[in-house]
Amino acid sequence: MLLFSVLAAAIAPGIALLTYFYLKDKYDSEPLHMVIKVFLMGFLVVLPVMIFQRGLTIWLGDHTLLTSFGISAGVEEFLKWFVLYHIIYNHTEFDEPYDGIVYATAVSLGFATVENLLYAWAGYSSIGTLIIRSLLPVSGHAMFGVIMGYYMGLSKFSNGPKSKVFLALSLLFPWFWHGLYDVILNTLTQEWIWFIALLMLLLWFLGMGQVARANSRSPFRLMKPEEEVNL
């Protein structure tokens, strides 16, 4: 029973947050099987992330800024971005800006869910610890996904040089915020929780603004009600 409770606490936050952002799509919800597929791709990202991070740590050593921005945030955000760009960016189901947020949060939360499961399986996490992780790292991955998906959506539906700029920002911004998050964890030992809490509040404020703006750019919002029924 205890093992079941711990596993449930590890899995539930990612699924709950993904459901939340999936339901925030106001005009043209994505096929559920596609969202689940991308969520499961987040599971698969974990293995190459672990391999690259281990190799880079052996090669470059353990230095706070390098570890935070390069080995941790850099590897994780690049591989999530790589999956989205090569599998989702040109997919026919990516047909409105908000779709970028749905798929980016799916792959991010899939990754975060496996991280939680690994902590639980290794015996490092009690239920209380997993609840804290749901409020911080899992929520953090969700916000990095929102930011990545927002700019990927802008890139998808922009033309010319702006499209390339937004595509670059879809990697750079989540990388920066993730790196800052890790720097706080790696440098502060006593009062880190207050700085992380402030950072998470800021990220949620920015993220929810991006959710609203992405929805406002949907081409489906201009359809007449009778047209929406026929979708």
Automatic annotation (TrEMBL):
InterPro entries: Peptidase_PrsW_arch/bac (IPR023596), PrsW (IPR026898). Keywords: Cell membrane, Hydrolase, Membrane, Protease, Transmembrane, Transmembrane helix. One of its GO terms (molecular function) is peptidase activity. It comes from Paenibacillus zeirhizosphaerae. The keyword Membrane applies. It comes from the Bacteria. The chain crosses the membrane at residues 6-23, 35-53, 100-124, 130-151, 163-180, 192-212. Its main location: membrane. GO terms for biological process: proteolysis. It is an enzyme of class 3 (hydrolase). This is Protease PrsW. Belongs to the protease PrsW family.
